[in-house]
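Following up on my earlier thread - several people asked me to post the actual chain instead of describing it. Fair enough. Here it is, all 147 residues.
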Amino acid sequence: MQLFKLVTLCLGVLGTSALAEERVAEDQTPTGKFLTAGEVRPILEATKTSWIGVREFDGQDLVYFTHLLSWRCGLYEVQYAINGGPTQVFPIPECPPDIENAMTIPEDTQIYITQPLGSVQTVDVTLLYDDLGTDTVQYQRSAVLMP
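Reply from S.P.:
Thanks for posting it. Predicted structure:
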């Protein structure tokens, strides 16, 4: 019953993601390999200003999620909303327990989304950790615009 309430609370914060609906909290025994929420949360909390970046390139706004991809182990899901619009899920690769280097981003991984040039003014990012905890940050374009 408590797990159901926790999942419902998380879903209320995150929206109705099909991925989040079936999640259960993972074992949080430290691995020393940064594979759990308990291991990556302190790093992600300390680096909130770096979770995303916006770059103007080739006539488009590119919204990068590279930092979150590097620290994806310990996360179930990354959601984002552009300019207060609909919440979307940014795909993150899974982290097998035998992964050599958890911070390595697998080849052919999508690292950004594209938007029309100058259109991205705010980006809301919500993380669902594998202990079912969440964290949400709103970014202003000027704070995350890369030169």
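Residues 2-144 form one domain. That should answer part of your original question.
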